[in-house]
Amino acid sequence: MATDRVKRILEQCKALDSARMVNEPIWDELGSICFPRNGTISAQRNQGAGGRPDRARVAENFDGTAMRACNTLATGQAARITPMGARWFVLRPPAAIQGNPAAENWYARCTEILAAKLGTSNFYNRAYECYQYRGGYGVSAIETTVGVNGRGLHYRVLPTGSYSIAENSHDEVDVVYRRYRRSPAQLAEQFELKNLPEPVKKRFDDAATRHSLSEELIHAIEPRRDRDPRKSDPRNKPVASSHVHVESELELLESGFDSTPIAVSRWQTNALNPYGWSPADYALPEAVQANFQEQMIDVLAEVAAFPRVLYPAGMKDEIDFAALGLTSFDPSAGENAVPREWLTGGRYDIAKDRAADKKAAIEAAFFVELFTAISRLSPKATATQVSAIVSESREMFHPIYSNMVREFQTPVLRRSFSLLIQQGEMPPPPPAVVQSDDLGAFIADPEVEYVSAMALALEQSNLAGLNDILTVLTPLAAIDPRWLAWLNPDIVGPHLARAKGLPSCFSRTPEEMAAIAQAQAEQAMAEQAMAMTQGVRNLGGVDETAKAAQMMQNMPPPQ
Which of 81, 273, 333, 496 has the most CB atoms at less than 10 Å from its CB? Predict the structure, then answer.
C-alpha cells in the first residue's frame, strides 16, 4: 500500500506534468524543424530511450536550414564556451578568503584535478547534447552523479518532455520531477533485487522479460522542508530525492543531496512559463515558410527539367517523350495540333531569393553569424570588418551566455567539485579554506571564473575602453607622466592577460610581484645612497660621508 509520502509524490508529479503538457504542441513543432528524427515528445516519452527514429517527419522536411543552424549553434558553444582540451574555467576561493596564498594555491590545484576528471568523463558529450536541447526546445536538464564504482563523475541529459519543473521565489528551478524507464535487470543493479516489488522480481527471474520490459519510475527532487539541519545523513540533506515505482506505488529509495543534482538551464527565461524560450521559437515562422518554399522550388525545378506537355486530343500515343524521340504531326492542322510545353513559366529565381531570405532569418535566430562570421568573410576583409561583425553578434549573445553561466556551468562545476571532495580526489584543504558555522565545519563553494574564448570575448568591451583611454592619455603623459600614474598595473596587468587568453603560467603570482617590488625599492635606496655618498665625498671628505650615511639610514624608502 502506498504511503502518504508516495501518494504526495504521485499527485505532485501528475500536477506538474499537466502544467508542462501545454508546452508539448509547440515543442513538437520545434522538434520537427530541429530534430525531425526524434519524433514527437509524447512518442519519445512512451517509447523511452529505445524509441525508433520518426521516418515520416524526416520525409516531410524539405529544408534543413533550422536543423543545421541548431547544430552549428551547439557545436559553436561546445568549441568556444566549454572546449575539451583547453582550460575554460578557474576555481577561485570564496570572497572572504581571496588573496590568501594557501587558499589560492589549493583552489588552483583543485582546478587542475576537476579539469582532468571532466576530460575523462562523458561531460563534453553531454554538454553538447545540452546545447542542442537549449537551442531547439529552450530548456535542458543535466544530472551530475558519481561514476562507475562510486569513483569519478558521470553526467546524464534528460530528454525534453520527460521531466517537469517548478521555480522558487527567486525564479530558480529547485523542483524536478522526471519520469524514466528501466528494465528489471537495470533496476536490480540500481536498487538491488531485494528492494524491488514482487512483480518486478518475477519479471527479472524470467529471461524473456529481464532485459526487454520497461518499468516506469518517478524521480522526485525538491527542497526538504522537514529536516534536522544538525544531522548530515541522506534523509536530512537540504535536497530530498525519492525514486518511486509507478505500477506498485512503492518507494525504492529515499535519499538526499547537499545541492540539486540536476541543473535545469533555460535559453531565455519567461516569467509566464518556467520552461523558457529558444532560438527555434524565433525561427519557427521562417522555418515553416522555408520548408514550403523549398518544396515548391523542387516542383519548379522538376517542371523546368521535365516540362508539362499540352497535346491535341487523340495524339497521346503518337508522342515520343524519349531523348531524340521523333513525333509526326499534320502541319495543315494548324498551331493547336502541335504538342507544346504548358505552364512552365514559374520564376525559379524569385523563389530562390525568397527562400534565401527565410534561411538568413533562421540562421540569425540561431546566432550562426557569431560562430561562422570570420570564415564567411572575403579573404580580403580587413581586421576592422572582422572585429565589427564579431562585436555586434557578441553583444547580442551576452545575456544568453550569462544565463548559461548561472543555470548550467556554475551549478554543474560546483556539484562536480563537491563530489570529488567527497571521494577524496582533492588534496587536503589548508586551514584557511575550512570555514565553520553553528552546524560545524565545511568547505564553501568556490567562485568560478570563466576563461573560454567566448568568456574572454565578452570582456573585450572593457579592454577596448582601456585602449581608448590610453590613446588619449599617452600624448599627455609625454608632457606630464602623472597622467598615467593613476592606472594600477597590479590590476590592469592580470586583466589584460586574462582578456587576451594568456595561460596563467605566463604571469607571475602576487607574491612574486611583491618580491620584485621590494627588490626594486631596495635597489633604488642603495643607488640613491651611493649617489649621495659620492656627492658628499666630492664636497667634504670622509667625515661628511659618514654623516650622509647616517642620514640615509633615517630616510624612508622611495615610493
Answer: 81
pLDDT given for residue 348 in this prediction? 76
In a 3-state reduction of DSSP, which class is residue 256?
strand
Please tell me the distance from the alpha carbon of residue 310 to that of residue 427, in angstroms, as a whole number.
85
Question: What are the angstrom distances between the C-alpha of 543 and each of 115, 308, 532, 555?
Answer: 66, 118, 14, 19
**Residue 132, H or E segment:** helix 123-136
**Helix, strand, coil fractions of the chain, as percent rounded to 5:** 55, 15, 30
Please write the tens of the pLDDT for every residue from 431-441. Answer: 989 888 776 77
Q: How is residue 36 written as a grid cell?
A: 525531425
Let me know: does 403 contact 171? Beta carbons within 8 Å: no
Cell of residue 58, nine digits: 524526416
Contact predicate 139/267, CB 8 Å: yes
Dihedral angle over CA of 424, 426, 430, 433, nearest 10: -100
* Residues 6+ positions from 110 with CB-CB distance below 8 Å: 91, 417, 420, 426, 427, 446
353 Cβ partners below 8 Å, 6+ apart? none
- Residue 177's Cβ-count burial label (10 Å; 0-12, 13-18, 19+) is buried
User: Which pLDDT does position 501 carry in this prediction?
Assistant: 47
Question: Considering only CA atoms, which of 116, 58, 121, 53 is closest in space to residue 89?
Answer: 116
Distance CA 396, CA 297 (A): 33
Amino acid at 40: T
Query: Residue 302 has which C-alpha cell?
Result: 522538376
Q: At what angle do helices 24-34 and 123-136 cross, to 10 degrees?
A: 110
Cα separation, 170 vs 51, whole angstroms: 37
Check pLDDT > 50 for residue 399.
Answer: yes
For residue 299, give the C-alpha cell: 516542383
Asked if 13 and 218 touch (Cβ cutoff 8 Å), the reply is: yes
pTM score? 0.78
CA dist list (Å): 386 to 372, 377, 392, 500: 11, 8, 10, 17
CA dist., res. 368 & res. 72, Å (int): 6
Q: How far apart are CA 366 and CA 61, in angstroms?
A: 18
Burial, 213: exposed, middle or buried (Cβ in 10 Å; 0-12, 13-18, 19+)? middle
Which amino acid does the sequence have at 550?
Answer: Q
Q: Which helix (H) or strand (E) holds 242?
A: strand 239-245
* Pair 101, 511: CB distance under 8 Å: yes
H or E segment and range at residue 309: strand 309-310
b/e per residue 55-81 (b: at least 16 CB within 10 A):
eebeeebebbbbbbbbbbbbebbbbbb
The distance of Cα 210 from the centroid of its chain, to the nearest Å, equals: 37
